[in-house]
């Protein structure tokens, strides 16, 4: 759980200074999301520029999210122990420097290494944002401050693919795909200067500094993820040797040891990496399952579509980014309609399942367009991509709120961190699993990109249908929890998420 911060050692920012501090926090959220959207859009261009393999392309995306997922909860603990301002600045400096090095990469190995460092720094930077907001604003102003996160993140999601494509094609500034990373540098400098100047230096509460990180738990969790992701991404290139399957099987006992370790820490009064009580809440576990399946499908579809458009149909990076605008705009519209109308009329769980249904329909629509047209155009993809966007909005608007109503108030902080980690884990494994299916099919059929995309999207549709079915397990009322399938009467502080 997050330790309360003591305000005795530093006066919080007052008046307009608080809003300057908030701007620094929102800049890092925008920078993180822009980076992810732009890199996903131009990944094929980066692979070509660095003469990398398709496995390298997968690692550019999955290495970042694996590091992010593995260290996200640990990053939040670091803020509790050493102070949120200090960790915010450390993470932002690291992310900015890593972005500069990514833009200067000379081979795929350097790029992948720097992307992993970027993910680790993001895991330190991002979790501090919500805690800093709580320190800056009194309860009556906090919902207004947090409400600004939605427009900022939404704008970044819409602008990211187009900006990334424009930068990669040399339409802006000239360095090509390297500018995708260089654009983070001025944003990072703004966030560092703003954070240093305006975020108050609130010391940890008494005793918080004496807490110790769960280093063993962090290593076990990260190890289990790598044991699954690494063979999935390297197996195709290596010819699927036996070690790939041994590695994936080895993740099971590692997870079992992690569970025992977490239970032992909780019994002895030490802070665990993952709260064991959450794993005994069957409805919350079902919510985690829905999240994993959703992000598995979504990340795999985005990767496959970006590669298919640029490799199979001659789209430039800018053209591919523009083709994604209906998806991102649909997500913004879907979120607004779900929040203003559907959640209150149907309830959060029905809205979530409706969003999953639209995502399945959108995935099948993309398959239909690709199967019927030899030369796919942006206009032909418009209807299914809008459906995918509307479905995303319908899922994300109620999902985190529903999941957090399933746990008791003291467990909310740990649950939020776990939900964020599940998001990044799903993204990582989705790129690894569906990316491997896509590239395997493309290789086996001698460059049949359209056929590879169809197989990948059918698998994604199946994962989304499984998420729809799993969502039924989220129903019911558990004793001691705050059950509400819509939005609560009082504004709830959302989890720190990138989407």
Could you characterize what this model shows?
By secondary structure, the protein is mainly α. The protein folds into three domains: 9-202, Growth Hormone, Chain: A (Up-down Bundle), CATH 1.20.1250.20; 212-270; 280-499, Growth Hormone, Chain: A, CATH 1.20.1250.20. It is 75% helix and 0% strand. The chain is built from 19 helices and no strands. It has helices at 16-49, 54-82, 84-103, 108-125, 128-136, 142-147, 149-168, 179-182, 184-198, 215-238, 242-267, 276-279, 282-312, 317-323, 325-346, 348-372, 378-404, 412-444, 449-470. Mean pLDDT is 81; it is low at 1-12 and 478-499.
Spans of at least 5 consecutive residues whose pLDDT stays below 50 are 1-12, 478-499
- Mean pLDDT equals 81
- Total domain units: 3
Taking the sheet with the most strands, its summary is: none
Helical percentage:
over 70%
CATH topology label of the largest domain:
Growth Hormone, Chain: A
At CATH's second level, what is the architecture of the largest domain?
Answer: Up-down Bundle
The number of helical segments is 19
> Could you state the CATH homologous superfamily of the largest domain?
MFS general substrate transporter like domains
- What is the tally of beta strands? 0
Instruction: Calculate the terminal CA-CA distance, rounded to whole Å.
Output: 23 Å
Radius of gyration: 22 Å
Helix/strand structural class: mainly alpha
CATH class of the largest domain: Mainly Alpha
